[in-house]
Amino acid sequence: MAHRAMPLLLRICAAIDELFIAEVGPQGAKLVEEARKMWLATGKRNRPADAQGYVHLLAQHIRDPDRRTDFVEEAKDCIRL
After folding, report:
1. C-alpha distances out from residue 16 to 1, 10, 34, 77, Å
2. Counting C-beta atoms within 10 Å of the first and last residue's C-beta, which end of the chain has fewer, N or C?
3. For the chain (length 81 residues), average pLDDT per consecutive 10?
4. pTM (2 decimals)?
């Protein structure tokens, strides 16, 4: 069974995707695609707070701890709207 996310949540994730790709470069698009599949496979997504797990899946691909922390903080701003 395919799991889905609410439209608002998908818009939040799209903003997070942009931040991530800006951080890691063009290869980030492939990582985003893989992370989104993994994140959605774990269950239905209904709340903006559900995007935190998605952020952490992406953040693990940023090696520099300071840049990773910056990405997570910026992504949290997307979640708060």
Report:
1. 25, 10, 14, 9
2. N
3. 68 95 96 93 82 94 97 93 60
4. 0.87
